[in-house]
Amino acid sequence: xxxxxxxxxxxxxxxxxxxxxxxxxxxxxxxxxxxxxxxxxxxxxxxxxxxxxxxxxxxxxxxxxxxxxxxxxxxxxxxxxxxxxxxxxxxxxxxxxxxxxxxxxxxxxxxxxxxxxxxxxxxxxxxxxxxxxxxxxxxxxxxxxxxxxxxxxxxxxxxxxxxxxxxxxxxxxxxxxxxxxxxxxxxxxxxxxxxxxxxxxxxxxxxxxxxxxxxxxxxxxxxxxxxxxxxxxxxxxxxxxxxxxxxxxxxxxxxxxxxxxxxxxxxxxxxxxxxxxxxxxxxxxxxxxxxxxxxxxxxxxxxxxxxxxxxxxxxxxxxxxxxxxxxxxxxxxxxxxxxxxxxxxxxxxxxxxxxxxxxxxxxxxxxxxxxxxxxxxxxxxxxxxxxxxxxxxxxxxxxxxxxxxxxxxxxxxxxxxxxxxxxxxxxxxxxxxxxxxxxxxxxxxxxxxxxxxxxxxxxxxxxxxxxxxxxxxxxx
Length: 476
Prior knowledge:
Oligomer: single chain
Distance between the termini: 59 Å
Shape: elongated
Structural class: mainly alpha
Radius of gyration: 27 Å
Number of strands: 7
Helix content: 40-55%
Strand order of the largest sheet: 1-3-2
Largest sheet: 3 strands, antiparallel
């Protein structure tokens, strides 16, 4: 049977005829029937794995069978059960070392409840099977009516349960030594936590989990948070994972994954960064607690005001560098993510990124003169700027986003006639560059977006327009 499954996978991948045959000859129904028997310990792992590989290929290459699998055959529910079964089986197998019972898996605020977890939970075969299931779930949900307000109670319950299971996968350690060592080196490099052994994950499995999370409805992201019930010294040593009485371990893992993607040598930025940025952006937009936690980690109160936002190795610095990336998809996702963390407050965004870095986003949204985006957020609280920022606030160059030493006035000592002469020289040079096509002179239109001007002197019409000042407080 195993060899036949391998042959079928190759045929489905390479032949459209084989794809159509397998979609109409009962192959799909047969796989779903066998899904119900995955609890049987005598069913070999390889059979399960190639079942899922075949189902993934069919749902990826034959999009028209997705509704049938999801609705008529209830495949969505059965696939969620397979993921849950993988986690329960691994928890039972490791219950003696981890002290985590499968019956209490959701009762703990962290699936690593006591913080001194030792020993692997997911072995390599379980990770491989989970990856295939996650890829199928991604195919089933990629074009669903998510976020359109059309989910009924049963569908919403299924998505909530799926995100709950995805939460567990995000924080569950794995057995693979190579992947563990890779993550340990990374965590040691960025000095996130003293006890790095708590946070081992399969990078590939994590990536597929992130992909599925991007397709989830906004209300389901609440399931990524759990009540903080751990007490004692363990919590004192892990305050980075607690916020507002919630355990933020899954969100912390998503941020760790983003950091790791920045340091990844292979792959294009679009392929490696787009899914995780989209996931974090939707989480922040949909859940106030997640947004506030992410803001603390990504945009902490400014202390280093003498360095440009794009200079340095913090997560904020790395994201600001991408605001001027030639890869439009990544640039837009980063800008949207930072804007959401700033509660779509233009003044606050400029404070953390500089006007120059944020100009692309502001121009596309008609906010170049200041103001707010269309998001609905809580009102600003009292000012919480750092002492370092308050001391030099009036000397910060808003375009650069950092402190700039006072410069001598280039017109000092000039008469009014000399000043007028130099101004006209500048106007003439700009007009010449504009006429030959080297530059395009623009002015800010009434809708807040840049608009080309026919003559350089039209810029005088906007000379009295001042940007709207918005509160820049770090408080939520």
